[in-house]
Fold each of these.
Amino acid sequence: MTDKPLTVRDLIEPAIMKAGGWVNTHAHADRAFTLSEKVLEIRRTYSLQQKWDVLDQLKRNSTEEDYYRRFCQFFELMISQGVTAMGTFVDIDPQSEDRAIKAGLRAREHYQDQITVKFANQTLKGVIDPEARAWFDRGAQVVDIIGALPKRDERDYGRGEEAFDIIMETAKKYGKMVHAHVDQFNTSDEYESEMLCSKTIEHGMQGRVVGIHGISIAAHSQKYRSRLYKLMKEAKVMMVTCPTAWIDTRRSNTIGLSHNSMTPVDELIPAGVTVALGTDNVCDAMVPWCSGDMWHELQLLATGCRFDDFDNLVRIATVNGRKVLGLIPYDKKAAA
Ligand SMILES: [Zn+2]
């Protein structure tokens, strides 16, 4: 009998299991598995920023039971792969109101013996609009992590910086971590990771703040990137990468550096920044192509960033995720 051919997966996955199993640090489980012809049409015809609002109808029409079913499906998909801890954003806003989070809390309780789940509140409507702010404040009390999308308030009101302050203040008030979507659009005119670090230091939140995506970092010059990595270390800001979610960024005719539309993990890790892995949206209008497969995400990260450091890939998939979710302290050295 011939031996089974050896793959990289055979080399890495056992180490991931040994290090406590996969950790999926970023998702939107409340909107997962909502694909339909109509939803795919939204995907084809609207920009991301338009989709923030086009999703309203789907959210408004979702009952607590719809949300509960999606959470359960998501948790089961994770458990089936050996995911032992995960974080998911949950829409708590004028459209979803508290139906999604109520369903999430019930589903979490149901699966508590199989997977640790942390919730963050999604702020698709920002924190400046008074109605959205009221839901943000309500959500902040219930969730484990304060979630953020400062770009929304920058786009609508030119008040992104104020949004960062509101989010940091709220996190301090409740003693919770911050997870903020930053630098998503792969352009060199975004500086949100830098702003996140400055605000972290200003509010004394070092070691408790996480940036989600950081795609645009790679669009900046090497000098800027080096300065930013130093600042990230000083602020102890961690970064979550969700490779499939942004690899489909549209081609642009802007002349710039040659790079993939990905978080530059190959530079962040050597610079001493903690990086963790997430699926982000799974089978929905935002990211129909992501099926929530953790191995696929790690493989895309490794190939897209040409990052062959197996020990660190294992950490990214496991202990770093636990740090990002606040399950182990930022300063605790990885056991793996
Ligand atoms: Zn997200």
Amino acid sequence: MTFLGKVIHVSVDLVLVSTCLAGIKRNTGLAFKLETIENQTARDYSRRYLKMGESVYDYSVASCGSSSYFERK
Ligand SMILES: *[C@@H]1O[C@H](CO)[C@@H](O)[C@H](O)[C@H]1NC(C)=O
């Protein structure tokens, strides 16, 4: 695999993990405790990372909601 291919693969995985965490947060209210990260810089990046996951999650929910392939149960 090329280097770029690897980068894309890792990025997609990171987005999926973040989206999964967002889904858990929305469904159970359980969110990753950002206070456990002591380093300010790392905490900021983690917050951004989790926010991105929530955006992807919201976008997916909106797309599924307006798709005729999905129904509400
Ligand atoms: C956080 O970690 C980064 C990378 O290890 C370091 O450059 C930075 O100075 C640290 N920031 C704080 C506030 O400790």
